[in-house]
Design a protein that fits this description.
Keywords: Acetylation, Membrane, Protein transport, Transport
Membrane topology: Peripheral membrane protein
Largest sheet: 5 strands, antiparallel
Distance between the termini: 75 Å
GO molecular function, one term: clathrin binding
Structural class: alpha+beta
Oligomer: single chain
Subcellular location: Endomembrane system
Radius of gyration: 37 Å
Strand order of the largest sheet: 1-2-3-6-5
Protein name: AP complex subunit beta
Helix content: 40-55%
Shape: extended
Mean pLDDT: 79
Amino acid sequence: MTDSKYFTTTKKGEIFELKAELNSDKKEKKKEAVKKVIASMTVGKDVSALFPDVVNCMQTDNLELKKLVYLYLMNYAKSQPDMAIMAVNTFVKDCEDLNPLIRALAVRTMGCIRVDKITEYLCEPLRKCLKDEDPYVRKTAAVCVAKLHDINAQLVEDQGFLDTLKDLISDSNPMVVANAVAALSEIAESHPNSNLLDLNPQTINKLLTALNECTEWGQIFILDCLASYLPRDDRESQSICERVTPRLSHANSAVVLSAVKVLMKFMEMLPKDLDYYGTLLKKLAPPLVTLLSAEPELQYVALRNINLIVQKRPEILKHEMKVFFVKYNDPIYVKLEKLDIMIRLASQANIAQVLAELKEYATEVDVDFVRKAVRAIGRCAIKVEQSAERCVSTLLDLIQTKVNYVVQEAIVVIKDIFRKYPNKYESVIATLCENLDSLDEPEARAAMIWIVGEYAERIDNADELLESFLEGFHDESTQVQLQLLTAIVKLFLKKPTETQELVQQVLSLATQDSDNPDLRDRGYIYWRLLSTDPVAAKEVVLAEKPLISEETDLIEPTLLEELICHIGTLASVYHKPPSAFVEGSRGVQHKRLPPRAGSGESTESPDVGQSGPSEAPPAVIPSQGDLLGDLLNLDLAPPTATVPSVQPSMQMGAMDLLGGGLDSLMGAGLGAAPAAMPASLGSAPAVGGGLGDLFDLGGGVGMPTGSYVAPKTVWLLAMKAKGLEISGTFARRGGIIQMDLSLTNKAMSVMTDFAIQFNRNSFGLAPAGPLQVLTPLSPNQTIDVSLPLSTSGPVMKMEPLNNLQQMQKYRKEGFLFSSLLEA
């Protein structure tokens, strides 16, 4: 008969019947009733009303019944703390029972009941159980100390339980040692500065002795504890590695990964010329390979850890490339991880078989996997120079398949190959241009535009190709727009006489018709460069580009060291430090590998989290005040250099955007700088006209002295402020931030007594003086007023960062409104 019958009852008045059964004299009936109570509790019914009746059932010799009652107590003690005290005497009595299972059960349950009133009664039984003659009771009591510490840390310290736990590390039973280590590690994590695990060679020896005899989970606790120890020298490090190495052949993958973590950490202290170092490298490979024969979920965890190990020590698995070849029935997440590791292990010795495998993957049906495979071919070309030609040939073969997403990925990686090997494989550009019409993904379009702009002098119809992209400029993604702007400027600098209209068109689109600040700023910069100094423009835009690095996706070395110290944990799967995803005080300790053998760093201090005095001080982010002060006090005033006078009345529409300033570019060549800034370019239009004088470079007659000023927008509607409408914008004049306001009276009465107040904001902005509205505001009248701002106000981060909340007052009434501070 199964226990499912306890879950099928639908009787009314069930609680009353259970109460009667719980108080029955028959033991079997009582046990059946408790089972029904536990079943009801399991499915979410409230059976707390039966608390006193269930507690009465504790007085029994039946172990099964006692377990059920303890289970009920753990669940409801928190909601019935006063009644839970009724059970204390039974707990204390059970802690002295002749049966060690009952003693352990009692102390375990008391540790799980998180009620402050009970914890003080727990101390004496716990002290006895920590020194119990039976190891099962002692190991249970060790874990109970950690639970009690979580409830009341001060009580545990006052009662001396931590010292007793430390003594248990020397216990004769390996499971007691393992649980004592686990409990101390748990407590140490929540109190990083307590130095509870004061490890020394004698303690380490005891842990290593217990390692061979305890259960698999006990081994994991001990191995994790060993990983936090810093050996005194390379001899001790080698000795520990020799005693941990047998754990690599354990059946439990968690034990294997914990052993790998210890060995990876202690290998840092071994000299590379030591014979044992080479032996250890060979011993690490087979267990890692064995992990890949497990089920897919375990494979994924193993692969994420192997990814870290390969970045740190690729020599461990350099001869094991074939085990990372993808199987047809692997899940996509396993395939992608294997692909990543294959690239990391690629070398001149195995590149032929890797490329053959990748070419095969590129014909698979899984689109995501095919994309990654094509990218992997490009990464191989960049990593192994000798294989670059073969990789390019493979990519061209894939382009000939005319499969849309394959072609697009191939173009993206060929762009990177051009960056790595300039002037070497440009003969393939004609093939790429044939596929121009099929590109519909932003990254592929941006890559193709970059290629056309970079090699415009080799493409006869480069201007036509770029013009075809320009037709739908506003429909393109930002990535494509930015790349198109740069490519056309490059083309113009290489072929100025043929493409002047094209560059005028793109600069106008980028600066006048776009609301994207990145695109607009880049357009202004190019416009200013081209108009003032074409020679400088050529030096900047057509400058020789640095070669791209072999591995762009390597984890930063300091983070990699920390993740190696967390092998076998979630941190190694996420590839993030614990502090990035663990809330609260736990997991925020930053670990690092011990200093390498012969590096000269001190190994005396056991605190491996501290950096040595010889290291360069880390770069720090400036304090908020400094950062904001610098940000808001940029000196954008006009330069003192004299500029020829200009005509202020010139309008943008009639202006030759790239006029006479480019004479040297189009006539005498790029060798000579222009004699003077042309009048047509020097005259900036009014704000409404578009471009403005972005960098205050023209301090002459008729030039506005300030940065770009956004048009005023309505900040406070009249219907929300009893007829007062406020429009405004922000500007900078003479290095001072100004808030330009337009106050409009849309009410029927005169408005007076204006004042303004700012809430705390991200930039510490506050009025530098009172709001000067000198005359009353009559109905239907508008007054323009400028309010100077200071950056000395209180700072508080806002969402969004540039949000500015203000209170406008008149006639002693206040109206709250918000504005966004424009960059």
